Amino acid sequence: MRLGEIMEDLGDIPGKKTVVSVTGAGGKTTCVLELSRTWAEEGQYVLAGTTTHMEDPEALGVPGAVDVQAGEIRKQMRREGWILAGTPSGTEGKITALPEDLFQDAGQAADRIVLEADGARRFPVKVPGQGEPVIRQETTHILILAGLSALGRPLKEVCHRLPRALAILGGEPGQILTAEKLGILLEQGYVQPLKKAYPETKIAAVLNQADQAENLPGITEEIKSQVSAPVYVRTRQQEVHLIYLAAGFSRRFGENKLLWKLGEKPMYLHLLDRLQQIWQEGKVRSLTVVTQYQEIAEEMRRRQIPAVINPDSSRGIASSLGLGLGEASGKGHRGEEQFYCFFVADQPQLEKETVERFLEEFLKSKKGIGCAAFEGTAGNPVIFQERYWDELLGLSGDTGGKKVVKRHPQDVFLYEVRKEELKDWDYK
Question: Is 0.70 topped by the overall pTM?
């Protein structure tokens, strides 16, 4: 479930402003950002922050207000929909809690408040120490996170406050963390103490990093059997980035085929117009164009489409792939699952509806690579899950993504389309 769905399932407390404290380990900052964005997109004003320490907005690449007055926080919150606000902590790249007067003032202008209320030093599991977590009294909901990437690994490698965990579980530091043991740590370390301290607050455990767990249903049931609060599995949002390759030399065509008029407009604009529409409709996260031609770059500036100039297209298509990936990688939200779909600019007959169905069916397939195909033969576009990032960047010369496709046939989804749509115009 997405965090917004989890909060909807838990429900608000009538007559109280929703104040969420995110505790535990295994992705708290990511969850604070996701929940803030979700509610802001629904038209609510959200104040995000911390009661301890967290990364500052600049490091996270999100709307922020650090070391400013409440009026400025309110102003930015109204402009952006949500704001991550805090005070410099004295540690580079970190913020700490707002002073109480600023928190109260800015909080009055927010519809909802989301706070990171624990520190785990990047461990996926934590048992709180004395005085932890730091929960404000007005908190209405407490979400306790645990990262499922910790399962099957030695406790000493995955747990913050190891002595506290051993006091609960007994045994040796090197014992393997199982789902049952994780449930016990959540119950005795967090749920029971928090229920006692905050009896009117809604408390739930959220299992994060679920894509790294095998036998997820069995793991979830085992943890639920140990925990007296609701237990949810958080799923990551799938974000698709479209990368349009328009940097070729058209050697066989006899002239620059991308700028060659096909009907009323240059060839490269036929498919690009459809991709731009998909992007503007919010069906994908980003659209990036890679080109070596100033005419195309200027048109992208006019359309406000991000474009990257490849200054040395003679190095081959791999250089354009790398430039496109570099630009698109900065467009995704932290913690979400990223996919990169490459298009070539000489397929003017590829239809918008075909692209949309291809992306939809690929994401349903749960495969890591997808290709449009005709009679089982893979063509373009090609989409890759983020785990293939390093392999794509490792390509060189005129070796395109098809080399990565051939290395992983078991992870490839083929989507059949009409032959005409896959035609690329190498000749007039």
Answer: yes
